[in-house]
Amino acid sequence: MSWSARLATLASLPLVTLVLPPEVAAQETLAIDEWEVPWAESRPRDPYVAPDGRVWFVGQRSHYAAVLDPASGEFTRYDLLEGAGPHNLIVDDEGIVWYAGNADRHIGRLDPATGEIERFDMPDERARDPHTLLFGADDDIWFTVQGGNFVGHFDPSSGDVDLVEAPSTEGRGGQPGSSRPYGIKLDSEGRPWIVLFNTNKVATVDPETMELVTFDLPDETTRPRRLEIDSRDDVWYVDYANGRLGRLDTDTGEVTEWDNPGGSDSRPYGMAIDADDRVWFVETGHQPNTFVGFDPATEEFFSITEVGSGGGAIRHMYYDADENVVWFGTDANTVGRATLPPLTRRVISQQ
């Protein structure tokens, strides 16, 4: 069956949700280290571990990209274009930094060796706020445009940008509004999956045709904000509105959801998945934020740790498989690292 035919079949299947009460096994408390960022109230966010092991992040409020050397604690700052409002960055194998110019409708290329910045403008003025970037299967870049309501593809070698419009929602005064394409991740076959935060939908895009297909989650009040993809290519998401963790089985269309330990107002946000398919997310609805681990094998929440700085809101996280740690930025103006429990290298059946 072709991919398009499989998507059509999957989209037509009834979705069944199972909401379980939160179960917390014998809790494991993580070691969490935080580094205070030297530029006050700059909203450090969206860290990314570069090939040299240093940790890059953006200062959304102060229009910079910066890098932390965890060994020395030293920070180095690179000012970006005026008014860029960087939301996210990624670093390629050559050490080049690519950032989302969220406040100025562009993707930027920063060469740390020279400090030179090159900007690539969005081809449609409606694509005003590039949001989250990730590398594709061929050194290309996929990204979301939240307010502008697009999913985009960027070719760094040519500078070409292709945009596919996401479904509209009813906005103010009955006018079309954005479905808010938000978190984005890549599956094992190179297809991007996206959560549409202003809806109860998950979407994917065919890289060959740029066709976008959506899948409804069963509860109309669900608002998925971030997602991860496991070793079976199932989609995990956090429901920011209702305080749940969810899984979409991309073979059957079945949806399973679990109430978070922090309850319906826990506001789960930043999310990661480790090499054992354990799911990690942060509850931002209470202070301090709590870093939560969930084991799909036992269907238990097995780890809950308070974030020392309080967190404010932890918005996006990065799993470093080499070190088995998760990096995050906080609204408390820190960059943090959570050291995860040892991996068991569990083999998960593909049946």
In short, what is this structure?
The protein has 351 residues and is mostly beta strands. It has one helix at 3-12; strands at residues 19-20, 31-36, 44-49, 55-59, 64-69, 74-79, 86-91, 97-101, 106-111, 116-121, 130-135, 141-145, 150-155, 160-165, 168-170, 176-178, 181-186, 192-196, 201-205, 212-216, 224-229, 235-239, 244-248, 255-259, 268-273, 279-283, 290-295, 300-306, 317-320, 325-329, 334-339. It has a 5-stranded mixed β-sheet, with no helix packed on it. Strands 2-31-30-29 form a 4-stranded antiparallel β-sheet, with no helix packed on it. It has a 4-stranded antiparallel β-sheet with strand order 3-4-5-6, with no helix packed on it.
Description:
The model is unreliable at 347-351 (pLDDT under 50). 46% of the residues are buried. This protein has 351 residues and is mainly beta. The chain is built from one helix and 31 strands. The radius of gyration is 19 Å and the shape is globular.
